[in-house]
Backbone:
């Protein structure tokens, strides 16, 4: 009988611990969902400053401050010039804090209307991003598609034909 009583008492600790873990996970998920629902970005322009540099500007149209840039995902699909042939290429670019024009990287080039919190993309502010592709854009077909996802999973995309 004593053994059964001890078993029941120790089981309550395990059940309580598991309930706390589930509660914490649910609370964390709600915070992420709330953050995502309040985030809205838009790619407003894309241009090319050279054959392998693509600049684009995003605007924060939501209510969430964005600052965790190394957790953003930037993907550029374009018609690449590879050994003189036009080949559709998709590059996932890595964030670099300082613009060094490194192949396969993107950086924050310039904040626009950065009225508060320097370096943070607040609601209503814009950010010009510079990216250096792995290959040059093919000269006669300059179709470029940019997809950017924030650290909380909100996505914006835009396609253009560069001049």
Residues:
């Amino acid at each position: 009988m004593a053994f059964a009583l001890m078993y029941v008492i120790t089981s309550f600790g395990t059940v309580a611990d598991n309930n706390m873990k589930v509660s914490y996970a649910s609370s964390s998920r709600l915070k992420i969902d709330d953050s995502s629902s309040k985030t809205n970005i838009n790619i407003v322009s894309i241009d090319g400053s050279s054959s392998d540099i693509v600049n684009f500007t995003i605007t924060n149209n939501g209510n969430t401050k964005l600052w965790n840039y190394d957790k953003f995902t930037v993907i550029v699909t374009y018609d690449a010039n590879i050994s003189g042939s036009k080949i559709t290429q998709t590059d996932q670019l890595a964030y670099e804090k300082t613009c060094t024009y490194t192949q396969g990287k993107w950086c924050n080039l310039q904040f626009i209307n950065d009225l508060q919190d320097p370096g943070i993309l607040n609601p209503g502010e814009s950010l010009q991003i510079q990216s250096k592709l792995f290959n040059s854009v093919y000269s006669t077909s300059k179709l470029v598609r940019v997809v950017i996802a924030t650290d909380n999973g909100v996505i914006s995309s835009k396609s253009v034909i560069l001049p």
The beta strands are 41-50, 53-60, 73-82, 85-95, 105-112, 126-132, 136-137, 143-149, 155-161.
